[in-house]
Amino acid sequence: MVLQGTPRGMIGRVKLAVRPLYANVYLLSTPAGRLLVDSGALSHAPRFARLLREFRPDALLLTHAHVDHAGNAFLAQRAGVPVLAHPLEHPALLGQVHDLPYPSGFPALGRVISRAHPKLRAVQAAPPGQDVLGWQVVPLPGHTPGQIGLLRDGVLIAGDAVVGGADGAHLPRAAYNHDHAQALSTLKGLLALDLREIWPGHGGRLTPEQIRARAERVDG
């Protein structure tokens, strides 16, 4: 099922659609089932609730725990949808830690924002190498310690390992990355994955050439 009015494509027998709910939410229809990737920001909760009813996912995978990507995950869990994430992201998703890198320079306010978001009761592990409905979990650390993406047939759903803009590929601001040097290393590592297209956590689809142009910049 591909919801009308959304950017979409075909990857073999897989249908991909995108819903921008501040961060991109990906809807993957595969022969093995329906998978959501990320849940968007809490301010878009009504739209995400409707998406859950229409798409009826078998699972929700979170690329990382930042609230603009995981803000509505509690709605999926409330609907009985299993939620998966890298184990390093579990403490934030469960409300055991409240570190948030934005607003930049105001860590105390970031903790207040984190505490104001509903948390999950449980999260299933999605370690690198695991198969999730036909997609391979790949590690993309740097923006957060446990950020992951999904890879299938040369197509990567990349979380915030890269951001799409009108002028090509970008990294999130250094202040928003847990480890900016590692984030840059992860971006350069994408060049070894033999990718055809890259779908970022924010912005539109990117090409390997756009990734290479950003990775080869000398200003970090």
UniProtKB/TrEMBL annotation:
GO MF annotation: an example: hydrolase activity
All copies of domain Metallo-beta-lactamase, residue ranges: 22-202
- Using the record for this protein, list the coiled-coil segments as residue ranges, or answer none: none
Presence of keyword Cytoplasm: no
* Pfam families for the chain: Lactamase_B (PF00753)
Question: Which UniProt keyword terms apply here?
Answer: Hydrolase
Reply yes or no: does the keyword Hydrolase apply: yes
Source organism, top-level taxon: Bacteria
The record's SMART domains line, in alphabetical order, gives: Lactamase_B
**PANTHER family xrefs:** METALLO-BETA-LACTAMASE DOMAIN-CONTAINING (PTHR42951), METALLO-BETA-LACTAMASE SUPERFAMILY PROTEIN (PTHR42951:SF14)
Please give the name of this protein.
Answer: MBL fold metallo-hydrolase
Species assigned in the record: Deinococcus arenae
For this protein's source organism, the top of the classification is:
Bacteria, Thermotogati, Deinococcota, Deinococci, Deinococcales
